[in-house]
Amino acid sequence: MASPGFDDLKWNAPVRPGDILKGQVTINEVKRSTSKPDRGVVKTFCEIINQDEVVVMSIRAINMIACRSGKDN
Q1: 21 or 70, greater pLDDT
Q2: What are the DSSP calls for 33-70, one per residue?
Q3: Model confidence over 11-65: pLDDT tens digits?
């Protein structure tokens, strides 16, 4: 599925060779598309954190996902 885009991309600190990175994703909103009910919209906030627990990158993303039909839920 396509992604409608992202907002608020921030590079907070440099990433260097040898850094150990981990990611954390928070789901902020989930809703079914009104125009295409077989699809949903998920808004997330993502952070990439280095070995020193410094957030090196963050982004707010909007993603389209496939949905099951209403009778399957």
Answers
A1: 21
A2: -SS-TTEEEEEEEEEEE-TTS-EEEEEEEEEEEE---G
A3: 999 999 999 999 999 999 999 988 888 899 999 999 999 999 999 999 999 999 9
Domains and CATH numbers, the chain: 5-72 (3.10.129.10)
Q: Are 2 and 39 in contact (CB under 8 A)?
A: no
Q: How far apart are CA 17 and CA 21, in angstroms?
A: 11
- Spatial contact of 58 and 12, defined as CB atoms under 8 Å apart: yes
Please determine, for residue 71, whether its predicted confidence score (pLDDT) is greater than 70.
no
Residues 6+ apart with CB under 8 A from 34: none
For 66, list phi and psi in degrees, rounded to 5.
-75, 145
